[in-house]
Design goal:
Radius of gyration: 27 Å
Order of helices and strands: HHHEEHHEHHEEHHHH
CATH topology: Nucleotidyltransferase, domain 5
CATH superfamily: Ribonuclease H-like superfamily/Ribonuclease H
Strand content: 5-15%
CATH class: Alpha Beta
């Protein structure tokens, strides 16, 4: 209400003095950012730090965000990361160079690399990254592997966090107090930071695997099920870093059995059962 009154008063004053519009090129005019616009932008950044600030105000100074990258691909490891911002940001606000930080999927490669460098070089930001290999993924399933990676990363933080913001579902067995946030990498800066560290680390690993396993195109598609990748698998077969528990590597009969009609129960004559006490 107050803002609209002030803006209206300014416009009325300009009209009463018959101020002529400027004919200077836009590039030469002084840049003016209204105070309300600054406040709006500040509110935007604070909202995405709101989960952290709420916990900091409760006296929990060690708050971490955790996320993963690489659950969907057909090949390569899953990478998890954990990040802790300093609780002093409750007063000073988000580090200015981190404005624009977002879910890694919403950033291009150049932006991710930029934020990766800022996060890993900041003296007050604590972080850790964990990689879970393909063999473990195939043994315990991808969700459990990603969660295990989060715990490994969190355990590496020193000091360990008092509370963790998790992207996605609550992890019941995680030995940390936690808050699960669906789409958390778009709602929390610490989770977004973790998503960037995990994504950049995994992309770099897949470029290395591209050199070790040529012909699959890992450097470009990072192991996802693109037409190029599927064609390479059909031509070359799977390599050492393909997830054998994933389609299209699972035996066909395993998938068909899910939809096979149940076989009729076989009647067993009582007298045909073996005598547990012997003949």
């Amino acid at each position: 209400m107050c803002s609209s009154i002030i803006i209206g008063a300014v416009l009325g004053l300009a009209a009463s003095k018959c101020i002529e519009p400027s004919h200077e090129p836009a590039s030469r005019r002084p840049k003016f950012e209204p105070e309300w616009e600054k406040n709006r932008m500040s509110a935007k950044y604070w909202r995405r730090l709101s989960h952290e600030t709420e916990l900091w105000r409760q006296g929990l100074s060690l708050v971490a965000g955790a996320d993963e990258a690489g659950c969907g691909p057909l090949a390569g490891p899953v990478v998890s990361a954990a990040v802790m911002f300093p609780s002093s940001w409750l007063e000073s606000g988000l580090h200015s160079k981190l404005r624009g930080l977002n879910d890694s999927k919403q950033l291009d490669e150049e932006q991710r690399e930029k934020f990766f460098a800022i996060i890993t070089s900041h003296p007050e930001i604590r972080y850790a990254v964990a990689t879970i290999d393909v063999e473990t993924i195939d043994r315990i399933n991808i969700r459990q592997a990603a969660w295990r990676g989060m715990q490994v990363a969190l355990d590496q933080l020193q000091p360990r966090p008092q509370h963790v913001l998790i992207d996605g579902l609550r992890i019941k067995w995680l030995p940390y107090a936690q808050t699960a946030l669906v789409d958390g990498d778009a709602k929390s800066y610490t989770i977004a930071a973790a998503s960037v560290l995990a994504k950049v680390t995994r992309d770099r690993l897949m470029r290395e695997y591209d050199q070790l396993h040529p012909g699959y195109g890992f450097a470009s598609h990072k192991g996802y099920a693109t037409p190029q990748h599927l064609a390479s698998i059909a031509s070359l077969g799977p390599c050492a870093i393909h997830r054998k528990s994933f389609w299209p590597f699972r035996p066909v009969e395993t998938e068909l059995d899910l939809f096979a009609p149940a076989l009729p129960a076989r009647t067993v004559e009582r007298n045909s059962l073996p005598n547990p006490n012997g003949p």
